[in-house]
């Protein structure tokens, strides 16, 4: 009987789920691999978690750690304690982590200390901003990983600068784009979602906003400036705004609800993956502080404004449709005026963002194990 290699695959947040979906599909179809999905519970809100599992066809996790919420230290420590038990009970050949969230680093650390090989999908991305918690997670995870899979060639250069052996690094493309391409035809049509938001009938021009990053929403001045810019933009281009739980809490805490009065901002609860994909594909402009959405808009050819001072995904700027507009209201509105004049940035699909990245990941893992 052929030996199967147990690979523990870790996911904990919405971006993780979209990445792990295509990886699980590839690993499951390989006769040599037995993937075991561990959900850390870092996103415990149903709309941010279970709905993604349902829509993306991700099977129920083998283990749910129920990490809950708290500070970065509390979340990371809780996941580490609980994941150590999982590791001991399953004797895996390797632990596969994706992205840059606390779950990623926590499980990679436990595996490394237990001498279990670590596989990092989406390695080498750098913002070079150590104030970002995700940057710390990225750098440390890469340092203890045995196999590192990159989405763009600049990531390889970043890893080489950090003295990581080139033999451990493989350029495979973007597994998140695999998931997008696989599900695009299944996306909920934008007009169906717009009807539920009482969006004016007969109009199909809108912007789409996501805003959740702590550095943007936890500071009342920054959040007020950003929302003020969106209010001005909405006078020209109505904006759909799925409100992240963290942002919703801060809007209430700072008493900023009034900013939405008499604006053309259509606020809604967080949307499922297929609804977001449908809205994104038909948007005139997407404004975001998310990392993954910068990539998804580039793959869809939709102009994107990134509401941050830096990005760890430079290819979305150099080759894609992304513009780094920062957090200054004046700059954002200036860039929006240019967008209205030109119709927005036109990019191209980056190399190996072809829907087959997960297959390449799987083949490299099999070759490495045997």
Q: Could you describe the 3D structure shown?
A:
This protein has helices spanning 14-28, 50-56, 72-90, 102-113, 133-143, 153-161, 175-183, 190-196, 214-217, 220-234, 245-253, 273-282, 291-300, 315-318, 329-342, 357-369, and strands at 5-11, 33-39, 63-64, 94-98, 118-121, 147-150, 169-171, 207-210, 239-242, 265-268, 285-288, 304-306, 322-324. It is α/β, with parallel strands linked by helices. It has 2 domains: 5-173 and 353-369, Rossmann fold (3-Layer(aba) Sandwich); 185-342, Rossmann fold (3-Layer(aba) Sandwich), CATH 3.40.50. Strands 3-2-1-4-5-6-7 form a 7-stranded parallel sheet, with helices on both faces. The chain has a 6-stranded parallel sheet with strand order 10-9-8-11-12-13, sandwiched between helices. Helix 4 runs parallel beside helix 5. It is globular. The chain starts with a strand and ends with a helix. The mean pLDDT is 95.
Mean pLDDT: 95
Shape: globular
Tell me the number of strands: 13
* CATH topology (fold) name of the largest domain: Rossmann fold
Series of H and E elements: EHEHEHEHEHEHEHHEHHEHEHEHEHEHH
Number of domains: 2
> Which strand order do you get reading across the main beta sheet?
3-2-1-4-5-6-7
Q: What is the helix content?
A: 40-55%
CATH superfamily caption of the largest domain: Glycogen Phosphorylase B
Catalogue the unreliable spans.
none
Supply the number of helical segments.
16
Q: End-to-end span in angstroms?
A: 15 Å
**Fraction in beta strands:** 5-15%
For the biggest sheet, the summary is: 7 strands, parallel
- Rg to the nearest angstrom? 20 Å
CATH level-1 class of the largest domain: Alpha Beta
Q: By helix and strand content, what is the structural category?
A: alpha/beta
Please give the CATH architecture of the largest domain: 3-Layer(aba) Sandwich
């Amino acid at each position: 009987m052929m030996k199967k290699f147990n690979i523990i695959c870790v996911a904990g947040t919405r971006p993780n789920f979209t990445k792990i979906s295509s990886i699980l599909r590839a690993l499951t179809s390989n006769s040599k691999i037995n993937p075991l999905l561990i959900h850390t519970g870092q996103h415990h809100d149903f709309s941010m978690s279970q709905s993604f599992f349902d829509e993306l066809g991700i099977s129920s996790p083998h283990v749910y750690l129920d990490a809950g919420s708290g500070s970065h230290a509390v979340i990371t420590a809780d996941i580490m304690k609980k994941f150590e038990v999982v590791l001991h009970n399953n004797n895996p050949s390797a632990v596969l982590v994706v992205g840059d969230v606390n779950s990623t680093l926590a499980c990679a650390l436990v595996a490394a200390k237990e001498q279990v090989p670590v596989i990092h999908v989406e390695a080498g991305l750098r913002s070079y901003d150590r104030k970002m918690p995700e940057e710390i997670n990225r750098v440390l995870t890469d340092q203890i990983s045995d196999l590192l899979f990159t989405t763009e060639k600049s990531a390889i250069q970043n890893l080489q600068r950090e003295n990581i052996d080139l033999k451990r690094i493989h350029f495979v493309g973007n597994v998140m784009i695999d998931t997008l391409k696989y599900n695009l035809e299944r996306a909920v049509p934008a007009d169906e979602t717009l009807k539920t938001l009482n969006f004016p009938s007969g109009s199909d021009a809108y912007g789409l906003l996501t805003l959740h990053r702590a550095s943007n929403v936890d500071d009342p001045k920054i959040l007020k400036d950003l929302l003020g810019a969106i209010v001005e933009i909405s006078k020209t281009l109505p904006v759909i705004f799925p409100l992240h739980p963290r942002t919703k809490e801060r809007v209430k805490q700072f008493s900023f609800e009034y900013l939405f009065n008499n604006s053309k901002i259509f606020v809604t609860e967080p949307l499922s993956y297929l609804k977001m994909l449908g809205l994104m594909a038909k948007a005139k402009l997407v404004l975001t502080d998310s990392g993954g959405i910068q990539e998804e808009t580039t793959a869809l050819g939709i102009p994107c404004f990134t509401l941050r001072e830096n990005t760890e995904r430079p290819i979305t700027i150099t080759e894609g449709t992304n513009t780094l507009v920062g957090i200054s209201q004046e700059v954002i509105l200036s860039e929006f005026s240019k967008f209205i004049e030109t119709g927005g940035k036109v990019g191209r699909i980056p190399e190996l963002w072809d829907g087959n990245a997960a297959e390449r990941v799987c083949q490299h893992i099999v070759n490495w194990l045997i």
